[in-house]
Recover the amino acids of this structure.
């Protein structure tokens, strides 16, 4: 892809994700995860530039301790999915995510 700006380790592990926008809650599946964002497979992608809050469990992690944060939709494909750039993650969640990604 020209103009590729992705950085850091990536994982193609699949995880369920819950995301919200304007009081509406949706479900999807993460199939591409990096320290800076994720791709969500969903039939309900949000428009580009939409703010979103999210919550997901890292594969193999404790389900009662999800990664949660805020992001922005940077691209979408109608009825297929969307790319999210993380705009806010706690230091703890960022460290957990980076540790997970470093395991490959």
């Amino acid at each position: 892809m020209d103009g590729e700006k992705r950085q850091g380790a990536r994982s193609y592990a699949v995880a369920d994700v819950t995301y919200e926008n304007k009081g509406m809650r949706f479900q999807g599946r993460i199939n591409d995860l990096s320290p800076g964002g994720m791709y969500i497979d969903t039939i309900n992608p949000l428009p580009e530039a939409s703010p979103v809050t999210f919550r997901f469990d890292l594969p193999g992690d404790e389900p009662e301790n999800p990664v949660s944060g805020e992001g922005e939709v940077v691209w979408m494909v109608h009825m297929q999915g969307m790319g999210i750039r993380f705009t806010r993650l706690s230091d703890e969640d960022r460290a957990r995510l980076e540790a997970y990604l470093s395991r490959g």
